[in-house]
Amino acid sequence: MVTAPETKRAARLPIKDEWGFFGIRFESIGGYGAHIAGRMLAEAGVVYMGFNGSNFSSYGSEKKGSPVKAYVRFCDSDQEVRTSAPIEEPHVIAVFHEALIHTQPVAAGLREDGTIIVNTRKSPEEIRELLGLEYGTVATVDAITIAVEEKTRVNTAMLGALCRVVPFIDPEAVKAVIRDTFGKKYPHTVPGNLRTFDRGYESVRMMTITPKPGFVREPYRRPDPPFGYLNAPIGGLVLSAGNSIVKDLSASRQGYLPAFDREKCIDCAQCDIVCPDYCFVWEKGTDKKGRPAMVLKGIDYQYCKGCLKCVEACPTGALQEKLEEDGWAKAHRVPRFALPA
Amino acid sequence: MAMVEPKARAAQKTDFKTGNEMAALAAAHINFHLMGYYPITPSTEIAEFLDEMKVEGEHDIVMVPGDGEHGAAGICYGASTGGARVFNATSANGYLYALEQMPVQSGTRMPMVLNLVTRSVSGPLDIRGDHSDLYYALLTGWVVLFAREPQHVYDLNIIAVKLGEHPDVRLPVVVAFDGFFTSHQKRRVQYFEDKQVVRDWLGPMPEGFPHALDPKNPITIGAYMNDPDLINNKYQLHLAHQNVLRVLPEIFASYAELSGRHYPLVDLYRMEDAEVALFLIGSAAETAKDVCDKLREQGVKAGVISPVLLRPFPVEIIRGALKNVKALVVGERADVYGANGGLMTHEVKAALKDDPENKTIVLSRVYGLGGKDFYPEDAEAFFRLAMRVAEQGGLGEIPAFDYFGVTPITPADPAKRVLPPLKAEELQSPVRIEVQPDGRVKAIAPPPRQMMEMPKRIAPGHGACPGCGIFGALDNFFRGLSGHVVVLFQTGCAMVVTTGYPYTSHRVTYIHNLFQNGAPTLSGLVEVFHEKKRRGELPADEDITFVMVTGDGGMDIGMGPAIGTALRNHKMIILEYDNQGYMNTGAQLSYSTPMGHKTATSNVGARGFGKVFHHKDTPQIMAATNIPYVFTGVESQPQDLWKKAAKAQYYAKNYGLAYGKVLIACPLNWQSEERLGTKIVQAAVDSCFFPLYEVEQHKTTITYDPEEKGKKIPVAEWLKMMGKTKHLLRPENKHILDEIQAEVDRRWRRLKAMHEHPLL
């Protein structure tokens, strides 16, 4: 039942932490729509259902493709929201991209009775294994397939899944916000988004983990900065030139990557010229006539964000767009650098 | 903020909005005459929201995008001399860049409202929230109000207009609020359903104050004034601040009648019988209240003090509130380095000094710098500190002043390299240079395959968006340069995504200074390089090429410094990547944004078709400084770009400053497919919007002529490739499209004439 803003009642939360809040954290990648999903969920709770609450996202220099977080807090309608700090021990964590599991501590701080929802084709058991989670509930939803099929984004599918695991959120209220949000500027996208939401809601798979006897959840510990005031170089200098090579940007890819066929390659270098992420690996070799020449060896997928500019530039079809399968990039990666362990 | 029981109050809507949204909503409801603005995180959204509302006809504020915050503040000052209602919003370094304008605004007694969305001041550059910018604002003669949550932002903005214009006040007013914690956090809020309620409450601006738009009554604004007059002018300013202490409570009371929301000058939370207290500005005070409640449940007499009014400082209220407090911790989100406490510490202490009975022990803790979050346990730590001091009746071993939340040491070694430095001999570009008999130079580029021998001076692992055009442009340019390079990046995407501490993607020495001051900075380095060589402090054969990299936004705010540097003709290169907007701060218009293009501050709607004026022709501006080499390039024509890079290096080594502009795709904000960037910039070239040419020793040469090759396309063919320009192809915008085509054709014909005639 949607309750219009004017007639909403004093809403009460069934589950709260010691400060009176129910906390939700979205772990995502810039461009997946987690920020707007957080906003829609919070609006559904506050404007349509009468809870009080707050909503915000992590901000910094993050660009599209970089890890981002969004937060939603709910509390009873008569409680004030005073804290503005991030939610470190959420009741629900929604992971918008499975690859984040490898690069971010996505499950950090999950409450003992909490649920983590992951956008994945894998089963809850497999995700539990990947996360190494020993408590709580694991839920999975294949949001990317739904989004591709409905020509929408994963965020509305994730919202559907969230409504399934957060029982006090009325799915009709979220759908009303979806209509409101998309209806203003992009009315033609409303039906697709509503279908995406419903499919997300319906296709959730869940498993609740029974902790081993004697299991005690480790309290959440905030990560340390890289250096302290005794070992950080003064003035904020960075002394290790080019150290960004240790970063793994695989999670920036949104489903596709370029596949390289050495047989078709003529070493014309058009791919390297347009690649924003410097993924192409060249080595000294010989050309067709046996003269010394640079030869394209392959792609370092650790840095590839899947923009496919190289596929567009390739004149011979040596580079082809490929739907990324689990483990494929790792198996076909040609490293540009010998990285420290 | 206490709730007042409703009488016949105006109807209000309950909603869920951020501080920035509430600032924009208040401005729209007030309907200022003018907003002068310049994008800077986190204040930028205010102008964006107002632009969105404007194209939908929700207000009539004239929105003027400045060339920098200094310019924006000048626009505002000028408007305020006309007796207008004026609005601005900025943060951090933007505020500091405009700082010089602030005492003029207050000293010449021109009311206006500036929203200071507080953020850390560089350097190192940190875009998150603290109060280091606010503390400068406290020294400017402006009234300063602080809003702790989005609701306060709306209310205090409306109140600020009334206060600043009051005949006994006549002062500009800052409404400050916490960057991100308040500016970007959605909360439940209320605002008037009918904006007329706000406009009626404010009424027209009070009359009787001369202004610059009344030719029948000529006045001189800004006379030059030495002693003995200045001290009297400043005493007037002081008296006006004193009047605020009387006038503001009256305005708060009147606003409470209207809205039901009553503000005190200082928010005193459970202070009636408090023995331990925290003094905090902004959102942190709200966090502390939750902890205060918990401690009260445990029998601790705790309280929280948070001023709404910071200038004038409400000394007496604070003194009264602390009368029986045993220990107070003043938390400061900014330090006054070397002063053993921030401004608030000393002002609170000074307030207490005048009460001989007072025995409050005051501790000062700097916390939360650069946006470091303030958690309830941090507030609890502050309370526990106060409790300990209160219990032991003195400081004992506890320092009166300290930092809170610093990390001493970690196991990591910051000096550990993961890559060896590049050697000069590895860095010999395959592009060759030949000096021609006429003194001009010819560059010969090898086949692309051979160019792959060049190591990249930028490492992968940077955080740019997928399909970003910056990195193709930079690497292709650097491939044409031989030997060691030192780079300086102005603030922008390329800077931010390559140097997020503790990482850097730069394999060569890299410098960032400010958004706008890169060219002078690098020119200083160039000059000491040559001087140190001359003095024998560097080897005589040391060879470094100096390259400044900037976005098109950096060439707006940094245009003056770049022109100055070019006129001095230092031996260096300025390379501009042009993505047609301020993409690092969320796609606001820059002067290089072409007419009609949609940005976050040139929206498309019932009353807007995108940017209203034509794009800046920066290469021609730079050519007019008579530097030896100017060029344009794109990644879709790499050989052309490699050759121009080598020539730029030749000129920067032998003659002076070289400048080049590379058009690059920004798929996110051009709303185009990531994979199509190369084709879109080539279409810009083929439409003659972005001609490829060089001005070498003052002679213009078109290096690729699409007309000659039969490849010229109408601008529409290029514009249809991007979401930001699709609206220009609709029939109702045909006149705009025609105007763009006419301007492109005019500039192209002029360029061709210059190409054909060596004197042009």
Uncertain spans of chain B, ≥5 residues at pLDDT below 50? none
> What is the string of SSEs of chain A from the N terminus onward?
EHEEEHEHEHHHHEEHEEHEH
CATH superfamily assignment of the largest domain in chain B?
Answer: Thiamin diphosphate (ThDP)-binding fold, Pyr/PP domains
Largest interface: A-B, 88 and 91 residues
User: What is the quaternary state of this protein?
Assistant: heterodimer
Which structural class fits the helix and strand makeup of chain B? alpha/beta
Q: Which fold does the CATH topology of the largest domain in chain A refer to?
A: Pyruvate-ferredoxin Oxidoreductase, domain 3
Q: Report the span from N to C terminus of chain B.
A: 67 Å
Helix content estimate of chain B: 25-40%
Name the beta content range of chain A.
15-25%
Notes on the protein architecture:
The complex is a heterodimer of chains A (341) and B (760). In chain A, strands 2-3-1-4-5-6-7 form a seven-stranded mixed beta sheet, sandwiched between helices. A two-stranded antiparallel ribbon of chain A has the order 8-11. The mean pLDDT of chain A is 94. Chain A contains ten helices and eleven strands. Chain A is an alpha/beta fold. Chain A is globular, with a radius of gyration of 23 Å. In chain A, strand 4 (92-95), helix 2 (100-103) and strand 5 form a beta-alpha-beta unit. In chain A, helix 1 (34-48) crosses helix 6, helix 4 (143-150) crosses helix 5 and helix 5 packs across helix 7. Chain A has helices at residues 34-48, 100-103, 124-131, 143-150, 154-165, 171-185, 190-202, 270-274, 309-313, 328-332; strands spanning 22-29, 52-57, 67-75, 92-95, 115-119, 137-141, 205-208, 256-260, 280-286, 292-299, 319-323. Chain B is an alpha/beta fold and 760 residues long. Chain B folds into three domains: 12-206 and 224-262, Rossmann fold (3-Layer(aba) Sandwich), CATH 3.40.50; 266-403, Rossmann fold (3-Layer(aba) Sandwich); 424-713, Thiamin diphosphate (ThDP)-binding fold, Pyr/PP domains (Rossmann fold), CATH 3.40.50.970. The longest helix of chain B is centred in the N-terminal third of the chain and has 30 residues, at 230-259. Chain B has an eight-stranded mixed beta sheet, with helices on both faces. At the A-B interface, helix 1, strand 2, helix 8, strand 10 and helix 9 of A face strand 2, strand 9, helix 10, helix 14 and helix 15 of B.
